[in-house]
Amino acid sequence: MMIRVPSVYLADDDPDDLEFFKACMLRLHPQVSVSLFKDGSELLNCLSSCKLAYLPHCLIFDYKMPNLGAPELLQATGPGTPFAAIPKIVWSTSRRQKEIDECLRLGAARYMVKPTTNQELEIFLQSLQIPAPSAASGEWRPQRL
Description:
- This protein is α/β, with parallel strands linked by helices.
- The chain has a single domain (3-129), classed as 3-Layer(aba) Sandwich (Rossmann fold).
- The chain is built from 5 helices and 7 strands, in the order ββαβαβαβαβαβ.
- Strands 3-2-4-5-6 form a 5-stranded parallel β-sheet, with helices on both faces. A two-stranded antiparallel sheet has the order 1-7.
- α1 (15-28) packs across α5 (118-126).
């Protein structure tokens, strides 16, 4: 029997944000596989090649990225796609209500302003409710946040 390791995909064009996230995630949740992508196109290409039984627990992506930003990613992974059940979290430096409303309307489970301290990031990561590793099956579905 194969063990299904929980995974999180993060797309952000800022390498510092990627490393900040990964280091904190691995410290808090060492059982989680973290995949980093420099833009939305990379994330979508990886998702498209994933077997349904191995989809990530959640997707986290920056609002503004080259190629595909949050609005485009939300549409490409939303209703009618194999990725619709995956919770999507948009994080951004922007606090603009227009962007927040747009992301929530397009299906984001959450929109959050990027954390700037370890403590803020830890609080966010603890809120993700990462599942324990489990047996792999074709019926696995990520839980809602």
